[in-house]
Write the structure tokens for this entry.
Amino acid sequence: MGDLTEIDNPKKAASIRKSVADRVLEALSSPEVLNTIIPILSKQISDTLEPIIEAEVKKCVAEEIQPLLQKLDCQSSIVETQKQQLIKQFIQLSSLQRTTQDQITSNNEREKEINFLYDRTKQIIDICNNKLGLDIGIRDIGRSHVIGKLKQGRSQVIVRFISYRTRQLVYSNKKALKGDPNGTFITENLTHFRTNLVKQLATLKYNNKINACWTTDGRIFIKVNANSQKRIINNLNDISDLESDIQQLEERTNINNSEGM
């Protein structure tokens, strides 16, 4: 055993402790020890501080980001509201544009119709005054419109006069249009049934079976020959009776001719 008396000496004991401490420090400061201890200490420090740092970072982020998120949500709500308003305004604007375009188209068509009606009315007045020798003004015509399709650039026009007197005046002078170079003629606007009756009678006239066929106020008249009385035709039975009378007349004529020979 060593000499314990040296330990009892304070100065020597302090010197020994200093020597031990120096050796410990020297050992700890060696690269081998540092390379071993530092990673261990770093890991321990990291494991200890990482949760604390993470919690502090989250806290700071929450404190800074949360108001921004709330503001962003508010702005998003405002943007969505404005978006809906813009969509509604766009729909209203599109509807207004369509309505405006439809109105413009309608006005253009109406203007064309008015111009066409005015030109047609001028033509009607020209026919009445220059070809029939009458004195008809625009106030004498109530309305007119085209019926049927155009044929070779021509059309049929129905004219309604303001007064019956003017109508009769025009209709009674229709013979003045006979042989008109433009093929203009005047007839009454009959029902479909009466029009078919007139067509059948026109065929009889074309075949020289009757002398004349005409209408007045919707009534149909015929004359078998120039000296016979006029007959009114109301239906198909009247035409059948007329054809029977014509046949009998022709038979009597043939008999008379045979006796004369």
Summary: Residues 1-5 have pLDDT under 50 and may be disordered. The chain is about 65% helix and 10% strand.
